[in-house]
Amino acid sequence: MLSVAALNQYYGESHTLWDLSLDIPVGASVALMGRNGVGKTTLLKCIMGLLPVRSGEIRYEDRSLTALRAEQRAELGIGYVPQGREIFPMLTVEENLKTGLRARGDKSKGIPEEIFEIFPVLKTMLRRRGGDLSGGQQQQLAIGRALVLRPKLLILDEPIEGIQPNIVSEIGDVIIRLNRARGKEVHFEKRESSVTDEIRDAIVRVNREMGVTVLLVEQKQHFVKRVADRFLIMDKGRIVAGGTMAELTEDLVRRYLTV
Ligand SMILES: Nc1ncnc2c1ncn2[C@@H]1O[C@H](COP(=O)(O)OP(=O)(O)OP(=O)(O)O)[C@@H](O)[C@H]1O
After folding, report:
1. CB of residue 237 inside a 6 A radius of ligand 1
2. pLDDT per position as a tens digit, 168-205
3. 175 SS3 class
4. C-alpha 238 – ligand 1 centre gap (Å)
5. Confidence label for 60 from pLDDT (cuts 50, 70 and 90)
6. Residue 217 in 3-state DSSP?
7. What percent of the chain has a predicted confidence (pLDDT) above 90?
8. Mean pLDDT of 70-92
9. Mapping DSSP to helix (H, G, I), strand (E, B) and coil, where does residue 124 land?
10. What pLDDT does 177 receive?
11. Nearest residue CA, atom 16 of ligand 1?
12. CATH architecture of structural domain 2-82+151-188+207-257
């Protein structure tokens, strides 16, 4: 679904990502791990078009993203929840959610109702200012905002940083639920009379809601083991290991993750 090939990125003269390549298969939930400062956030920002790259290619569903602006990448179906959430504290919850729609050319469609099914608390707080929400509620808002364009790939940067333990498990549940259908599309061969429009819409909606491929940066292993089925490890701007969660050995943890 997403592939990065031989990517090089610099901050000024400082070479940060080195010939970096990776592949995220459709339907996977992949944890990108590594110590502080190895380049995880930088990589996500390059994928989203928020930082320029020096060379290499980023492809999404067989299209090159390299020349596209951040909004165009969002429009193609990539949702992004930045580190630190970056919600607008002075805007209401509703206004914050609407900022997620800005990439869309056709602005006539509003916030999809399923956002409130996933995060009921947002519905009760529509008129509250973002800055008045708790940390966990702000994170739900940040994820909700990333879901308003119904992305097929959801990228999250440290989604449980600074969040209370009870909300951490809720955020974990949401990620698992979003990812569960493993990205498989529902196809209707022909209109069957037994399937009403309402049921058809509900199936498509639930599938959309739950068929999201996930790429998340996260350090906390218990959380990663719960929500991800694959891992990638970065060190000094390169991918140095990857595999299924069962292949994350103690040796890898010692070499690349423990501080
Ligand atoms: N805007 C910037 N200008 C210059 N250097 C930067 C900038 N942002 C990050 N860096 C440097 O690039 C390197 C990679 O940083 P990055 O934030 O991508 O790492 P990270 O793995 O996400 O770390 P963390 O877990 O702390 O978020 C670090 O050495 C960092 O100091």
Report:
1. no
2. 888 888 888 888 754 444 455 555 455 556 665 665 55
3. helix
4. 13
5. very high
6. strand
7. 57
8. 91
9. helix
10. 81
11. 39
12. 3-Layer(aba) Sandwich (3.40)
Positive or negative CA dihedral for 237, 243, 244, 250? Answer: negative
| Residue matched to tokens 């610099």 | 10
- Extents of the domains making up the chain: 2-82+151-188+207-257
Query: Where are the alpha helices (H) located in the chain, listed in sequence order?
Result: 40-48, 70-75, 93-99, 114-118, 120-124, 135-147, 165-179, 197-210, 221-227, 250-252
- Decide if the complex's ipTM is over 0.85: yes
Q: What DSSP element (H or E) covers 205? A: helix 197-210
Beta-sheet strand order (sheet of 213-217): 78-81, 153-157, 213-217, 29-33, 230-235, 238-244
pLDDT the model gives residue 184: 45
Whether residue 210 contacts residue 179, with contact meaning beta carbons closer than 8 Å, is answered with yes
Q: State the helix-helix crossing angle for 165-179 and 135-147, rounded to 10 degrees.
A: 10
Q: Atom 28 (ligand 1): residue with closest C-alpha?
A: 37
Give 27-40 pLDDT, tens digit per residue: 889 999 999 999 99
